[in-house]
Amino acid sequence: MGSFSRIVNADTSLPAGDLSRLLAAKPLSLLTWSFTLLAIVIILDYLILDDVSLGVLYIVPMLPAAVAFSRWQILGFALFLALLRSVFVNATSPTDAFLRFLMGLLAYAATGLFVEELVRNRRLILHHSVELEQQANLRREAESHLKALAQSNPAAILTLDEEGRILAANRATAELLALPPQDLPGRAIASHLPVLADALSLRSDLPTFRTAAQCQGRRGNGSLFVAHTWFSTYSTPNGRRLAAIAVDVSDEVREREEQNLRQLLLNNKIVAAAVSHEMRNVCGAIQLVHTRLSADPKFQHQDDLRVLNGLVEALSQIASTELRLRASESLPWIDVNEVLNQLRIIIQPDWDDAGASIRWNVPASLPPARGESYGVLQSMMNLAQNSLRAVAGAAERRLEISASSSADTVIIQLTDSGHGVVNPSRLFTAFYTESGHTGLGLYVSRAILRSYGGDLRHVPTAHGAAFQIELSTARHMAS
């Protein structure tokens, strides 16, 4: 653009500002100037007709006219100027007059076309410069928006070069790594989030990839944390790059593990209660046999009988530690709709893979209930898994999950289209199974729900199997 401006200025002897004003002038003004100059040239040519040839001056009216005219109009105007000039030419012969006319036509046309080309190029350059300026403004605006988005994001966002050094990062990255923001550029990420450095260490001929990973990180002060990262690699002329987003999930992991541990302890207590119950039944039978043998004079002084009596008493004491589950008044409130949404996310893929369908008939808003979301979710997952096994060989593979509420309870029912229950009376008996599994699933599920003040029961149906989960509502608990 600067080179072209110098060319235009050199050819027209006009400053850049005057040239811009000339290009912005209205065509009527330009034509007025052109014909005014033409009139002056004609008057001068008429006054000094016999002295000097002023044919070169006819180029002057062409200059402003070429700015306003198109190419065909320029050629027509050049023809007009050549004819007008021939009026004032003192030709010695017709051939001389024709040659003078032809030379004038070529000169005027060439001048007009040259000026028109310069003006057209100048206008194109101005138009392109305006477009470039607009694109630059849009790019700066987009960059400012992206920078504001990255800086305001609570997740750590960073980019790395192929050596695993930080190129750019937001404020959340400095907070996550416990480092001053000015220390981030150029810092190696391997000592903080090694999974990102490992991703860059893969072969450079591998295609661009993106993935997510959970890893252990280390802050600048040496403390450890658990981070969930999303990252992708890309190529630039300066080498491979990696863009990553990292979130500290230490609190979530700790809470989940603590919840898992609490649920494991509860399940162990429930299983222990079931084993204790069975042991007490066995001890009762042994005690009965021992009593009968003790009544027989032949066995009253047998040492083996006294040893047996001691074992029976020891087993009875162990069995007497049976767990008694009571609903705790300190149980939290749970959002039943949220628990059902979690159930849907967990079980839907397995049912889709099995070619089975799940029909959900759940109100948009259910009252909160008391209990622990993990325990309620585990009970429903156990029922859903039993239903999935039950419908495996059925012609219609379907599970319907419905929910309703009353003043003091929330009821969730799971109904499948499987083969049904052969012996409903023994469903919730510990170690009883019809499917070859441990036989503790329904027993534990009901014990968990009863510990929350709820219940689990089998609902007789003509086809398939139906189970109903009952939870106490928060309103009922508060009352």
Please write out the topology.
Layout: H1 2-12, H2 16-24, H3 27-47, H4 59-68, H5 71-87, H6 94-152, E1 156-160, E2 166-169, H7 171-177, H8 194-200, E3 210-218, E4 224-236, E5 239-248, H9 250-295, H10 303-319, E6 333-334, H11 336-353, E7 357-361, E8 369-370, H12 373-390, E9 398-405, E10 409-416, H13 441-451, E11 455-459, E12 465-472, H14 474-478
Parallel strand pairs: 7-9
Antiparallel strand pairs: 1-2, 1-5, 3-4, 4-5, 6-8, 9-10, 10-12, 11-12
Helix pairs in contact: 3-4, 4-6, 5-6, 9-10, 9-13, 11-12, 12-13
Short description:
This protein has 479 residues and is an alpha+beta fold. Helix content is 53%, strand content 16%.
Describe this structure in words.
With 479 residues, the chain is an alpha+beta fold. Helix content is 53%, strand content 16%. The chain has helices at 2-12, 16-24, 27-47, 59-68, 71-87, 94-152, 171-177, 194-200, 250-295, 303-319, 336-353, 373-390, 441-451, 474-478, and strands at 156-160, 166-169, 210-218, 224-236, 239-248, 333-334, 357-361, 369-370, 398-405, 409-416, 455-459, 465-472. It has a 5-stranded antiparallel β-sheet with strand order 2-1-5-4-3, with helices on both faces. Strands 7-9-10-12-11 form a 5-stranded mixed β-sheet.
